[in-house]
Amino acid sequence: MTQQTILPGQTIGILGGGQLGRMMAIAAKQMGYRIAVLDPTEDCPCAQVADKAIVADYADPDAAKEMAACADVVTYEFENVDVQTADYLQTHSYLPQGFRLLEITKDRLNEKAAIQAAGLPVVPYLPVRNEEELEKAIRTIDFPSVLKTTEGGYDGKGQYVLHDQADLEEARPYIGKIPFELEKWMPFEKEISVIVVRSTTGETSVFPVAENIHRHNILHHTLVPARINEKLHAEAAQYALRLAEAFHLVGTLAVEMFVGTDGKVYVNETAPRPHNSGHYSIDACETSQFEQHIRAICGLPLGSTDLLKPVIMVNILGQHVQPLLDKIPELSAGAHLHLYGKAEAREGRKMGHLNILGATVETAIADAQKLAVWKI
Ligand code: ADP
Ligand code: MG
Q1: pLDDT tens-digit series, residues 176-191
Q2: Does residue 144 have a cis peptide bond before it, meaning omega lies within 30 degrees of 0?
Q3: Is 157 a known ligand-binding residue?
Q4: Which end of the chain is more exposed for a tag (fewer CB within 10 A), N or C?
Q5: Ligand 1 centre distance from Cα of residue 156 (Å)
């Protein structure tokens, strides 16, 4: 595919109209691009800020045609892009990120193999595609461990934490019907992540390392700079760059890692798109992950990823929306509210996030705690 420079005034097509698509669109619109979004839901978060919304199933061939007719470049906000749609857009439009990386990262087994092939450590794992493989995996990996569906999992969905044989019962009906992998439970010091972006011109940039705190497997809050030593900061950035190179990345790659209690860094999983743990960059970095992504796919020079101030990013889930709205008069001067325009505030649903900048991570945390919406 010949590299093209896409200039403001031209149209960026986005597959998927959730919050990631919306924040990509906002960054792009700021630079003067036009946006077309494909999503089956009317008035989805991205459609609210787009110039054109194609409301159709992702696999609808007419929708792919309509997208190709209006977009000068196409990108995506999620892993599970329909193969036929991607294939059509690759031929009839400009899809600089290609399709190969999606195929690697949407399957945990492929992904782990690719990470290992890049020379990076992962937690011990084995495939579980039938009863025999399950027995073997339990014998080898033992408890505690975690059984994960190889495809389609997010926010801990499709995962079973196993302390003993009894914990297997819930998952047993699915064994042999859908593919799983069994992973050793990793006692970790910290969970961290790094966003790396590579443009169509080959220019690469890395964002500061984020420290992530999950609750019920959902990202609860992110702290930047991560509270780890300099050596680990450098190592995490190096790992992300290594993967960008090994994966022939174009666009954005989020790399989730564990810092084990053994002091070593292990790669947990990757996502070929902007990531929840990079939302802090909207207010705390010179260039946000979304602007950087747009620059990368449009072939523009990348921006500086320097951290302007320490920050905490706290996710606003369904149950936090009203308590937070009640506290708006108490927001500190460094607080920046982002809401995604979702109609229904269901429990556990990601509705927005709050970035609070501070002189230090500790003062930012203290400001978040004062709101008493979350227990930080
Ligand atoms: P998802 O696709 O749902 O984000 P992850 O593999 O990242 O799936 O798992 C979600 C969270 O569950 C992780 O961020 C981590 O907190 C916990 N987790 C997952 N795998 C392990 C493991 N092997 N050891 C310890 N904790 C884990
Ligand atoms: Mg994860």
Answers
A1: 999 999 999 999 999 9
A2: yes
A3: yes
A4: N
A5: 7
